[in-house]
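Review form for a predicted model. The reviewer records the input and the model, then writes brief findings.
Reviewer: anonymous (R2)
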Amino acid sequence: MVADSEQIEIPGSTGAAVPVAAGQALRLVNTHGSQVVDTWALSRSDRNEYLSVEHTRRLNETLCPVAGDRLWSNRRQPMLRLEEDSFGGPHDTLVAACDRWTYASLGCPPDHASCQGNFARALAGLGIEFGRAPNPVNLWMNVPVQGDRVTLGSPLSRPGDHVLLRALTDVVMVFSACPMDLLPVNGPDMRPKSVHYSILDAGAP
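Model under review:
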């Protein structure tokens, strides 16, 4: 069990898988203020149930989750609640996680890190195989939508912005500090940066 005050680093371009019990919360901090974090949740009782952005958009009737919203599974069950969001701006639910094909199309070598690869490696560290990553919630990713046009914008988040995600059931949360270093989705310097998280006991603010 991680103490409430202890922050654990997720280095830029890497991932982490974190078991979180029902009632506990995870505080994720955008330490440097410009890092996108691809975010997933899997049920610990049934690995066929996972956080679904498609169902979350439908059940919340909005494109982007805001503080107070629940995040829903592919079986239309609430998995997480976004209790706090110091940013208050949009978190993307439209863009798929980057993968090895993304970077191949941009001329990168086959060993370039990707969010899908980070998802698989993080879960493998817990002895879990899940196959291809579901579509994530892209925390702090700026994806303006105008009419039927979807674009990638520069980050709007600030150093120290955080979200607090409360588990409504036993889950494994998975994070990828997005390794994109060819487009300015992680800031104009195009340099992936670390983020930090901590676990709070049930009922802790």
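Findings: The longest helix spans residues 115-124.
Further findings: The radius of gyration is 16 Å.
Recommendation: see findings above.
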